[in-house]
Amino acid sequence: MVALGSSVFLLVRGVLYRHRRTAQPHTLVVCQRQNHGNGWFTLTLQRPGPLRMLPLPRFEGGQSVALSLPGSHLRRHYSLARWSKRPFQYEVSIKPEPQGKLSQLLAAQALQGTRLQVSRPSGQFTLRTDSPTRRQVLIAGGIGITPLLAMLDQWSRQRHRPDQELHLYWQSRHPGDWIYHDVLNAYATTMESVRVRLLASRAEDGKATRISVSLLQAQLGSLDDTQFLMCAGSQMLDNLSEGLLNAGVPASHIHFERFTSGAVPSDTGNWTLQIEGRTVPFAGHAHVLSALEDAQVPLAADCRTGTCGQCCVRVISGQTRSLLESEFKVSAGHCLACCTVPLSDLQLGRPGHSTS
Ligand code: FES
After folding, report:
1. Which of 47, 138, 199, 314 could disulfide-pair with 209, CB 3.0 to 4.6 Å?
2. Pocket of ligand 1, candidates 125, 259, 302: which has the most ligand atoms within 8 Å of its Cβ, to mutate?
3. Where in the chain is the domain with CATH 3.40.50.80?
């Protein structure tokens, strides 16, 4: 009996050790799917079969996993929406985008019982757990609530000084988008140090409100001694970041993650991309990366929002336009394929030297 017990222990420890060491994606199964009235859906993922008793890799609130369907080359990062110190399940909430190939595929195919390839959690956009500042202000736009909810989960389980507070603002278009309304309400009513404010920019009762720096100042007073963590679309992030800087908030107190790679111009044109002996049509794509992916040109891409730098390519000839001020800084003569559109035919190559 003792020998059997120790064998099982060694087996479990071996499996855990292997999972910790490998960067290979896990195969997880959709154990629950919830469809929301606004078209968004929530997937709960766990290991298949008896392996579900084993914990999944831990993560920091705010981190994400890359999901893909078996046999598909499409792979996208989605933030983990609920945090637990020892997770046995992951939760992601997805808004299917009209142009989002994987989000559309997941909407159609990720049903209960579907197996998905899931990477280890990663990402630098995390709660400032060791921050001495008095306040953390989390600002979400739409589906950008997911990493911030995980941060709130994590924050609620930590010790804080009596004067420390967490404020969460969630702006969506319609009240029907507040899919985590009940969870947030529970936090706000049970934790004195947590304040939650929900805003709808297109409310039908005439009470539409939008997040702005002046609204923050009116409700919070001075913005000193405050860390801001924001996840939203590019326009909202750019407006808020600029406003906070103008209000005197130091750049080191402003942290953000985009879930889009910038406003896509309505007409990106028809061009030809040449890369490593291949000729690829660019025909009104959202960015260079999507044209390369359509042509199945292998190019690493992780964040797709100008943060990780993996999609950096060398621009040998031609004109490009960047869709945003990226976090990752490329060296001269390079661009990030995920947030660049061509302004002419392009000749591209693998990156030379790039800096971050
Ligand atoms: S995929 Fe990360 S910067 Fe382009």
Report:
1. 199
2. 302
3. 135-258
CB 275 within 8 A of CB 313: yes
Output the CA 191–ligand 1 centroid distance in Å: 38
Tell me how far apart the alpha carbons of residues 276 and 348 are, in angstroms, rounded to a whole number.
8
Pocket probe for ligand 1: among 336, 341, 348, 354, the residue whose CB has the most ligand atoms within 8 Å is 336
> What pLDDT digit, counting tens, does each position of 256-282 carry?
887 765 556 667 789 999 999 999 999
The ranges of the chain annotated as CATH 2.40.30.10 are 25-118
- Collect all residues with Cβ–Cβ distance below 8 Å to 139 and sequence separation of at least 6: 148, 168, 169, 170, 171, 211, 228, 229, 230, 231, 232, 240
Going from the Cα of 173 to the center of ligand 1, the distance in angstroms, rounded, reads 27
pLDDT at 70 over 70: yes
pLDDT at 24 over 80: no
pLDDT, tens digit (0-9, with 9 covering 90-100), for 110-139: 999 999 999 999 888 898 777 789 999 999
Q: How far is the CA of 164 from the centre of ligand 1 (A)?
A: 35
At the top level of CATH, the class of 270-349 is alpha beta
